[in-house]
Amino acid sequence: MSGTESAEASVRPGVVGAALTDTGRVRQKNEDTVFFYQPADPVELAKYGTLALVADGMGGANGGRTASEMTSREVTQAYLASKGEPTPALRRALEIANRRVYRRSQKDEELTGMGSTCVVLVLKPPFAWAAWAGDSRLYLIRDGQIFQMTEDHSVVNEMVRQGLLTREEAFNHEDRNVVTRALGTHPKVEVDVWPEPYPVRAGDRFLLCSDGLHDLIGGPEILEMAGTGSVDAAAARLIDRANSRGGSDNISAILVDVAESEGTAGRDIRPTRDFVPENMKVPQGLGNSEKTYE
Description:
This protein has helices at residues 42-48, 60-80, 86-107, 155-161, 167-171, 211-214, 219-226, 231-244, and strands at residues 4-7, 11-12, 15-22, 32-37, 50-58, 115-124, 127-133, 137-142, 145-148, 192-193, 198-199, 205-209, 251-258. The protein is α+β, with helices and mostly antiparallel strands. It has one domain (4-258): 4-Layer Sandwich (Phosphatase 2c, domain 1), CATH 3.60.40. Strand 8 and strand 9 (145-148) form a beta hairpin. Helix 2 runs antiparallel to helix 3 (86-107). The two termini are 31 Å apart.
């Protein structure tokens, strides 16, 4: 096994990040890819912000790894080549990645059927933007509470929305890893984005993770383990805990802190709330809840 890999996470005023991915205890290869990028040029940083991305590949060891690496590369390059606002830029970046992963899968028999989930966060304090497809998740830890900021594109989540399962039942359901959307499995994909910039403030901590983590660790426990300490130590704790539960899948975690800076200090930020993705109904059980529901 390749063990734990880390992605270099630069430190710039306003944002601090740490990225870890681990093969787990069962799989022979790691099909996850994590990426944390912060432009060194202050002008570029102001323009594009800090980008964090988790991609969870599928389609066999070769196909899954290829799909997640392509997704990370294509999304990042397309976003950095964009000239518009982050919301449409991120949506388009995931759509471009989808087309290119799909075309690659059609040209190579060994890669047929490959695909990848993707969740990406862009931070330019005092705002953040996100886009995703699949069941890799984004959480926000704020004021001692944890909020799930994305909605899984999965079979069991659809069953929860229809009232056929409770969230507790979904957490242990045998089909919880069956996704309804991914990049590269079809010529087109529906990408979810936050329809407007999300206000952030100093002290906020974001977690991006693959299902190899959130399948084994629920929201309250994530809060307990990742709510304090440095991003590096907290990310390592999460990986270790998932492995202690069996490590049945590859495990990835990126933690990103919003630190005190000129852009975040002293602003009047709206209260935290559950985020409803564009063109999607509120899943049953979410309502106006203020805490994660696992």
